[in-house]
Amino acid sequence: MARDDSKLEIEMPAPDPRFQATDEGIREAMTYLAGLLDSAISVAAAENDKRLGFALFIFEFDPGKATFYVSNAQRGDVSIAMRRWLERVEGGQ
């Protein structure tokens, strides 16, 4: 039976004052978000008999500035997924 995503409701937590706009604060926030994402997709994946991975990137818009990354997958698997995504995006799909 297909899941009805139109009824999916996600309760967003209030901003956490522990997470500051510093490198360490961003890392802490990303670790927290990674736990939420992993929990959420684990349930969805189990319902659909799939294995799902995620990668979250947070970056500064200025060229050459910081980029932060967290994932539940191995770096090589994320690299492959990113290449597939770039092919679709750059190919206009």
Structure description:
This protein has one domain (20-90). 44% of the residues lie in helices and 11% in strands. The protein has helices at residues 23-47, 75-90; strands spanning 55-59, 67-71. Strand 1 (55-59) and strand 2 (67-71) form a beta hairpin. The longest helix has 25 residues, at 23-47. The model has no long low-confidence stretch (mean pLDDT 81).
Please outline the helices and strands.
Layout: H1 23-47, E1 55-59, E2 67-71, H2 75-90
Antiparallel strand pairs: 1-2
Main-sheet strand order equals: 1-2
Alpha carbon gyration radius: 16 Å
Query: Helical stretch count?
Result: 2
Mean pLDDT reading:
81
Helix content: 40-55%
Q: End-to-end span in angstroms? A: 29 Å
Shape: globular
Query: What's the domain count?
Result: 1
Q: Describe the biggest sheet?
A: 2 strands, antiparallel
Report the oligomer. Answer: single chain
> What is the total tally of β strands?
2
**Which structural class fits the helix and strand makeup?**
mainly alpha
Q: Uncertain segments of ≥5 residues (pLDDT<50)?
A: none
Strand % is 5-15%
Order of helices and strands: HEEH
Summarize the structure.
It is built from two helices and two strands; from the N terminus they run αββα.
Could you name the key traits of this structure?
single chain, 93 residues, mainly alpha, two-stranded antiparallel ribbon
